[in-house]
Design a protein that fits this description.
This protein has seven helices and seven strands. By secondary structure, it is of the alpha+beta class. The strands form two sheets. Strands 3, 4, 5, 6 and 7 form a five-stranded antiparallel β-sheet that branches. It binds flavin mononucleotide.
Length: 215
């Protein structure tokens, strides 16, 4: 940590790590404008240590939260647990599609083994809560995912927000300990970027903005 400007460290194969610094002239938007995903397959060790992770989760938990419900929690997948989870994905993928090919199965096996750390963001949606609409609690949990992407980048790591079928499969959710009143809103893959993260075209805010006027 200790960066004064937003950056993503990335490491080319066989090279020492390189740091991309956002243009400080663009402060205070630099960190926001530099935000982008790094594909999970391009994330490698090292990931954040425990202290840095807790710092990141603390920052990511500073989300607007109607009624202060804290409608989210985190499940960490790291180390050998990632490979064990991959084995579950393979078994379940075969159950879902007995004709699945070897290449597709290999993809499932490795899906959670690229990045050194995956934080599962779980929305906790208490059905008895009639005061705060469920949608709003879900939005809070989704905001945590985005805030965690930003926190990872602020700490010098690359990150990517993924879901995929595993986030919706009841059997996989049970494996993760996700209960009936909970939903996985994101698997946040976090690690050191192998490549300078690719940029994509961004929406033009002028095309998105309109003014409401009274008739
Ligand atoms: C809720 C949610 C789920 C996503 N799940 C996937 C996914 O399963 N696979 C995928 O390729 N991209 C997925 N994405 C898109 C990526 O996270 C990312 O937004 C995209 O690669 C564009 O990169 P950017 O973050 O730099 O705009 C998801 C995004 C959101 C918001």
């Amino acid at each position: 940590m200790g960066h004064t400007a937003p950056c993503i460290r990335f490491r080319k194969a066989g090279a020492t790590s390189v740091t991309i610094l956002a243009n400080p002239e663009h402060e205070p938007f630099a960190a926001l404008d530099a935000r982008r995903s790094v594909p999970a397959r391009q994330l490698t060790a090292p990931g954040p240590d425990d202290a840095t992770l807790l710092r990141m989760l603390g920052a990511a938990s500073r989300v607007p939260d109607h009624g202060k419900r804290v409608p989210f929690r985190f499940v960490r997948l790291a180390g050998e647990a990632r490979d064990a989870f991959g084995a579950h994905l393979v078994r379940r993928a075969q159950e879902r599609d007995p004709a699945i090919g070897a290449a597709a199965l290999e993809k499932e096996r490795l899906r959670f083994s690229h990045a050194p750390l995956i934080i599962t963001v779980v929305a906790v949606l208490d059905a008895d809560d009639t005061k705060i609409p469920e949608l709003e609690r879900l939005l809070t949990a989704g905001s945590v995912c985005f805030a965690l992407l930003q926190a990872a980048q602020a700490a010098g790591f690359g990150a990517c927000w993924l879901t995929g079928w595993a986030a919706y499969d009841r059997d996989i959710l049970a494996t993760l300990g996700v209960q009936r009143h909970e939903r996985v809103v994101g698997f946040i893959h976090i690690g050191t970027a192998r490549i300078a993260p690719p940029e994509r075209e961004r929406p033009d805010p002028r095309a998105l903005l309109s003014d409401w006027r009274p008739d």
